[in-house]
Amino acid sequence: MSTEQDYIRDIAEIRSMMERSSKFLSLSGWAGVMAGVYALVGAYIVHVFFGFAPLKIAYDAVELEQFSLKGAVMVAFGVLVLSVGTAVLLSSQRAVKRGESLLNVTSRRLVISSAVPLVAGGILGLIFMEHGLIGFLAPVTLVFYGLALYSAATYTYKEVRVLGLIQLALGLLGAAFVELGVLFWAMGFGLMHIVYGIYIHIKHER
Amino acid sequence: MLSSGFHKAFESRIRLGIMSALAVNDALDFNSLKEYLDVTDGNLASHIKALEKEDFIGVEKSFVGRKPNTKYFITPAGKKAFGNHLAALEKLIKLQK
Predict the structure, then answer these.
(1) Number of Cβ pairs closer than 8 Å across A and B?
(2) How is domain B8-88 classified at the CATH fold level?
(3) What pLDDT sits at residue A114?
(4) Do B96 and A14 touch (CB under 8 A)?
(5) Smallest Cα–Cα separation from B24: which of A28, A5, A109, A148?
(6) Taking chain A (206 residues) in consecutive chunks of 10 residues, what is each chunk's mean pLDDT?
(7) Which of A81, A100, A178, B70 has its CA 20 to 30 A from that of A53?
(8) Minimum distance, in Å, between the CA of residue B50 and any CA atom of chain A
């Protein structure tokens, strides 16, 4: 005959199975912290060395010469590659430790659901750049990144949804106050990643 | 002693695990279930067969490229039985408190 202990264990296992089979919980908090650090360093380089500090939305070809746009884009791309690389590396280490595989149903869903807004945002950013809408570059990446996190949160820690909303809000603020766009970008990609990474680490990894 | 709502098909932890995973996913393939449950192929297959027999889960066969891909999903009857089982579990725990 089953005892109360058995029932409680049954319920606990049902809950854990529902969570494990629908959410990717090997996402690393440290990866978030590192992404934030890369972003802050990147924002500093772009701002100080490449003079990227748009004061208005649209620039014509002559005005554009004051920025090393190519350099700025390369730094942004570097930050992206480093962040994704770190996330994959640290998350795969955690997945191994938790006996989960890095490429399972939940991680695939996580990637697909965030890829849709990210790719759309990336393309829109390139179109803006083509038209000289430099002031919108930082805010638009932040807005779409926020949307990506918001939708990806279904498949991982629910706190990611709040982070998504924060990035979205900072991106919209950056679009409204273009001269502060880079600052909001550094706050979102940099500071918020570090804060959230530490939070996830404390709450879920110890 | 067993209150209504319990189903003997769910007495096994593995079968309970299969139902839990399928309750929150549209469909899962064999290998995903195996990863979550940490069981051998033969063991999982026999539990799946038992649940299939009860009509609690269904099978969806398709091809990914040329490789056969079998996915399992929860049927409406399975959802109902699993929900009743869960409710019965919760009730029992509350009663004993």
Answers:
(1) 52
(2) Arc Repressor Mutant, subunit A (1.10.10)
(3) 94
(4) no
(5) A109
(6) 77 91 92 96 92 88 82 92 95 89 89 95 94 93 96 93 97 96 95 96 88
(7) A81
(8) 19
